[in-house]
Structures are given as structure tokens and as C-alpha cells.
Amino acid sequence: MTELQTSAALDFGTLWAEALPWSAYAQPAMKHWGLWDGVYQRATIPEWAARAAEPLLPLKLLVLAEDWCGDAANTVPVLARFAETVPGIELRILERDKYPAVMDRFLTDGTRSIPIAIGLDADFRVLGHWGPRPAELQAWVMAHKDTMTKDQRYPEIRRWYARDRGETTLRELLDALQRA
User: Fold this and answer.
1) Which structural domain range is residue 117 located in?
2) How many domains, in total, are found in the chain?
3) Is 67 exposed, middle or buried (0-12, 13-18, 19+ CB in 10 A)?
4) For residue 132, which phi and psi values (nearest 5 degrees)?
5) The overall pTM is greater than 0.70
6) Which of 67, 72, 128, 174 lies deepest, with the highest CB count within 10 Å?
7) Which residues of 22-60 are buried (b: 16+ CB within 10 A; e: fewer)?
């Protein structure tokens, strides 16, 4: 079954209309505003990413996220900057916990892991999706989940994201959408 067929029951046009643009979602009232805003302020989009997006335009990125999620805080601001930088890309955010049917359509290994970025074409058809974190980082997390506590892992995860500067997220997202 294709991504389009498995997503048929969800009305992505309505979901898009309900979703928040970055400017409405990312607000100082967020509990983790400092991290979200810091990543956003430092995000720069490589020229290769803008060129790679061209065949997908116009593109809508519908992202499932929550303020408390460290992976979302490290990737969604980069995706927001990407949408602002590349004409023809729009980004909107759905809060995961308010949209369980959407989350359940895009489970990761049977879990509600976020963020999930869903690429939609101009007619709100699903092109593909990415998430919840870059494959290399996920492999590291899985390799260390039984030997390190979450509090020990998180600083390493944050350092990985800081070194990567969103490049792997952009590359994997674009690859997922271009394969569709």
C-alpha cells in the first residue's frame, strides 16, 4: 500500500487549515522557548537543500510536534527556517497530543515519536514523511539506551544536533520526499 493510500482517511486539507504557522506556534510562552528560538536563530539553509527542494515545489510541510520534545526543538526550527528561505515551501505545525489519529498514522516502530514532518503536494496529497530524528543519531541513541540514562544521553544528543546544524534532517527529509 502506498503512503497516499494509507493516508486517504485523513483530510490533510482540513488538518493544514487547523495547523499553526511557525510564527503562531513558536512563542515566548513555550516552556522550552529558549531552545526552540536559539536553534531557529542559528539555523541557516545550505544552498544544496534549496536546490534539492525545487522538484518538489510547491511543498507543504505539516509537522507533528510538542514543546517538550527535544528532538522537535532541534529540528522543527530548522524546518521553519527552510520554509522561510525557499520560496514555494510552507510549514505548519500540529500539536501531537491534539491529533492522535494523525500521529497514529505515522508511528515509528509502533510508538508516537515526534517530530514527524509530512510532505504534502499542492492538493494535500502525502508525498512522504520523515522523523523523528536523523538515522545516525537514532542508531547512537538505540546503541546507548541501555548503558546511559536519559539525562546522560540528552547532552550528547544536543551536541550532535549542534554540530550537524540541521543538515542531516534536511537531507533525510528531502530524500524521503523525492523517493515518493
Assistant:
1) 3-179
2) 1
3) middle
4) -95, -10
5) yes
6) 72
7) beebbeeebeeeebbbebbeebebeeebeebbeebeebb
Alpha helices for 7-85 (secondary structure H): 12-18, 22-25, 33-42, 47-53, 70-85
Q: How confident is the model at residue 149 (pLDDT cuts 50, 70, 90)?
A: very high
Measured in Å, how far apart are the chain's first and last C-alpha atoms?
12
| C-alpha cell, 65 | 510536534
Q: Residue 170: enclosing H or E segment and its boundaries? A: helix 167-179
CA distance linking residue 63 with residue 41, whole number of Å: 19
Beta partners for 90? 60
Q: Select from 126, 153, 155, 127 the least CA-distant residue to 141.
A: 153
Q: Are residues 45 and 170 in contact, defined by beta-carbon separation less than 8 angstroms?
A: yes
Q: What is the pLDDT of residues 2-27, one digit of tens each?
A: 344 344 589 999 999 999 999 999 99
In this structure, what C-alpha cell is assigned to residue 83? 520554509
Total count of residues recorded for the chain: 180
126's enclosing H/E stretch is strand 126-130
* Residue where the block lists cell 543519531: 137
CATH code at position 11: 3.40.30.10
